[in-house]
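subagent[fold] <- orchestrator: predict structure for attached chain, return tokens only, no commentary.
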Amino acid sequence: MKHIACARCITPTAKLRQRIHARRLARCHTMGINIFLDISLDISLDTFLDTALDTALDISLNIC
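subagent[fold] -> orchestrator:
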């Protein structure tokens, strides 16, 4: 029989979806940090910000 959740309850499937989503967000955040740390410090601030924004957008579109 299918489980029907009350207003305050959360189904096991919904819990699993939340955990998967949280892992994806954490992976997205970790990948972003690693990419930013790999960027050389001798580049200009404008180039760094452009790269950071492009990378963050790519990650959010592909993973999250």
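orchestrator: received. Logging for downstream: The two ends are 32 Å apart (CA to CA). Helices lie at 12-38, 45-62.
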